Amino acid sequence: MSDSKDTTPRDTKQRIVTAGTELFRRRGYTGTGIKQIAEAADAPFGSIYHFFPGGKAQLGEEVIRTSGAVYLGLVAELLDPHEDRAAATRDFFTAAADTLSELDFADPCPIATVALEVASTNERLRIATSEIFDSWIDGLAAYYAAGGIPQPAARETASSVIALLEGAFMLGRAAHSTAPVLAAGTAAAAIVRAALAGE
Fold first, then answer.
1. pLDDT tens, 92-104?
2. Which of 69, 139, 153, 164 is buried most deeply by CB count within 10 Å?
3. Chain-centre distance of CA 87, in angstroms?
4. pTM of the model
């Protein structure tokens, strides 16, 4: 390890979580081994179990909860300056399409990647992904409610927008194209406009 590398236990744990996030996003949960995570984090193999005695499942849950909170913060930052909720939603999808292209059509969302793999095989991770998706829907619903969409329509709108985004990522990855994400952004904006109009 070089002298310039962070060496405190907290720094090592953060490197492990960051490496897990990146590898789960690119290779999936089942396609990623503990040894690969340790190598990517430039951390001793044993440190994984020191910080995560529950092994890969515990690390997976930490990755889900940590990255889920980060993504929620990014969404809030992107949407917050906009008064027009429909335009903000469309612009968010445009930014998501740019991110997908920049990542060479690798999945930009480790939450969805893990959720698709473990929903019927790992209850601990299924619950974690479900709770993160709920937190995203709650955050987006609050944003829409503040813009004039009453409950429960705000939550229904938010749920539809998140579903469109995650589905569009999957289609975009398969097609190696941003077109599905941009099309989903148009549809999401229309849903928001309709909800604002009380339709």
1. 999 999 999 998 8
2. 164
3. 21
4. 0.84
